[in-house]
Amino acid sequence: MAGEDTTVRRRGRRPGGQDTRTALIEAARAVFGESGFDGATVRVIATRAGVDAAMVNHWFGSKEGLFAQAVLKLPFDPHELLAELRDGPDEEFGRRIVRTFLTRWDGAGGDVFQALVRSVAGHEQAALVLRSFFQNFFTKVIAGLGSDRVELRTSLCASQLVGMGLVRYVAKFEPMASSEIDPLVTAIAPTVQRYLTGDID
């Protein structure tokens, strides 16, 4: 009995409850961020979480299922976000988008965005979800503003925000990586606003 208790403590196993699920999600975000989808293993994630590897299948069905829950789940509800962004003048839409993007991803610690982007290159599911989110989101935004050339404007807006996220959360270029949000909004929002409603010829 004593030997069994030591093993349990050494492995840091948790009861098979909600705390186990939360621990796996947090560990998966860290490991996917460090290693990408292909480099991350169920065993390493489970060890980081302090649980048995079987808990991954129990809670998520597979590494793919864990990835979908831990990484592809955005730190906001797109529908609620769209309603929030629409609350204000159209000519300030770019400012609201940039500020909200930075605030939400900063609030998530940047880890979710970092893990998602690092996994895109090696896993089509991540790339598909990233494309789908930006396409659906900006198509609704731009259509609501009455702008033309929706597909091109969507791609331009996505390139600006993804690029901003890469520099701030992944490559961590200074001073942008540690900058306060307000200066970044002032610098970047006019470009996003032009992509939304301005002349792109």
Automatic annotation (TrEMBL):
<feature type="DNA-binding region" description="H-T-H motif">
    <location>
        <begin position="41"/>
        <end position="60"/>
    </location>
</feature>
<dbReference type="InterPro" id="IPR001647">
    <property type="entry name" value="HTH_TetR"/>
</dbReference>
<dbReference type="InterPro" id="IPR041678">
    <property type="entry name" value="TetR_C_16"/>
</dbReference>
<keyword id="KW-0238">DNA-binding</keyword>
<dbReference type="InterPro" id="IPR036271">
    <property type="entry name" value="Tet_transcr_reg_TetR-rel_C_sf"/>
</dbReference>
<protein>
    <submittedName>
        <fullName>TetR family transcriptional regulator</fullName>
    </submittedName>
</protein>
<feature type="domain" description="HTH tetR-type">
    <location>
        <begin position="18"/>
        <end position="78"/>
    </location>
</feature>
<dbReference type="InterPro" id="IPR050109">
    <property type="entry name" value="HTH-type_TetR-like_transc_reg"/>
</dbReference>
<dbReference type="Pfam" id="PF00440">
    <property type="entry name" value="TetR_N"/>
</dbReference>
<dbReference type="Pfam" id="PF17920">
    <property type="entry name" value="TetR_C_16"/>
</dbReference>
<dbReference type="InterPro" id="IPR009057">
    <property type="entry name" value="Homeodomain-like_sf"/>
</dbReference>
<dbReference type="GO" id="GO:0003700">
    <property type="term" value="F:DNA-binding transcription factor activity"/>
</dbReference>
<dbReference type="GO" id="GO:0000976">
    <property type="term" value="F:transcription cis-regulatory region binding"/>
</dbReference>
